[in-house]
Specification:
By secondary structure, the chain is mostly helical. 63% of the residues lie in helices and 0% in strands. The chain has eight helices and no strands.
Length: 297
């Protein structure tokens, strides 16, 4: 599966530069699709699933390629279950961090240290999973747990020291964006194709580079760096960050839809859950940052 998310970016649905899944569709009947653009139907160059037993059934017996057995294919229920498990783990550890790591003046340094440590380890685990050939539920759930600790402390700081109720507002905002993008995607108002993918990836790269430069100026020059994360510019970039997160959701929805249509192995549901969780965390953090800026001005 290939997506904006590093989780999906190592896989493609065909040999057409890895993005033909955006422009191809399964044949009538849904499950049984043509071999063109379907890496799960039979072994072929660029197909990371060519060696799974479902992809080769029929080929090794001289029969025409056919869709994988239903018991081995990813379904929407699998994606929902794995995503719920991953997000549930994140929410539980975030709640525990909020309750057990106080952010008053006497303890905030220790809480910040634990949060930053958890966030860095979680980032490493996310990178390890991103470069693995197969999904590792243990890695994904460990990432979610550590990310929850980080988010719990950061949310507590913002909610208790900057803007009361900010965490709940950010949660509601994230849920609203998710629901809006899902409705727009299912209604066909968002067309995910190569142009859309290219635009989103270019915009995301530019955004990340600007934020990295701003962080460097803040670290070595002090203050707010170039001001991209404070004041009026901070508000503008906060909105841009949320819009980029919404675009990532559309790309992730497309990859999940294509994976189900083309008979991706069930283990891919864990990667879908991982990617969706990363995107939702991005959107939540942008909302939290935006609320902080609005309440500081």
């Amino acid at each position: 599966m290939r997506s904006s998310n590093p989780v999906f970016s190592r896989r493609g649905f065909s040999r057409d530069n890895g993005y033909a899944g955006f422009n191809t569709a399964p044949q009538a009947g849904g499950a049984a699709v043509g071999t063109q653009g379907n890496p799960y139907a039979q072994p072929q160059a660029g197909n990371p699933y060519a060696q799974n037993p479902y992809a080769q059934q029929g080929v090794q017996y001289g029969a025409p390629p056919q869709a994988p057995a239903a018991t081995g294919r990813m379904t929407i229920d699998d994606v929902i279950l794995r995503t719920g498990t991953t997000l549930g783990t994140l929410i539980v550890t975030a709640a525990l961090a909020w309750a057990l790591l106080p952010v008053d003046d006497a303890h905030i340094s220790r809480s910040y240290g634990i949060a930053i440590g958890a966030g860095l380890i979680g980032m490493v685990l996310a990178l390890v999973q991103s470069f693995k050939r197969k999904a590792s539920p243990a890695l994904i759930l460990s990432y979610a747990a550590l990310e929850g600790v980080f988010l719990g402390v950061v949310s507590s700081v913002v909610d208790n020291r900057i803007a009361s109720g900010a965490a709940m507002q950010a949660v509601i905002g994230t849920m609203a964006v998710f629901a809006a993008v899902l409705v727009a995607y299912k209604a066909g108002w968002i067309r995910v194709n190569r142009r859309f993918y290219g635009f989103v990836m270019a915009a995301a790269l530019g955004f990340i580079l600007l934020m990295a430069v701003n962080l460097l100026f803040a670290v070595f020059g002090g203050g707010d760096g170039l001001g991209f994360r404070s004041g009026p510019l901070g508000i503008v970039f906060g909105v841009i960050g949320i819009l980029l997160g919404a675009a990532f959701l559309a790309l992730d929805f497309k990859q999940v839809e294509d994976g189900i249509a083309y008979g991706a192995p069930r283990e891919e549901a864990w990667l879908a859950a991982f990617g969706l969780t990363m995107t939702l965390v991005w959107i939540y953090m942008e909302f939290l940052r935006l609320i902080s800026i609005l309440n500081n001005d």
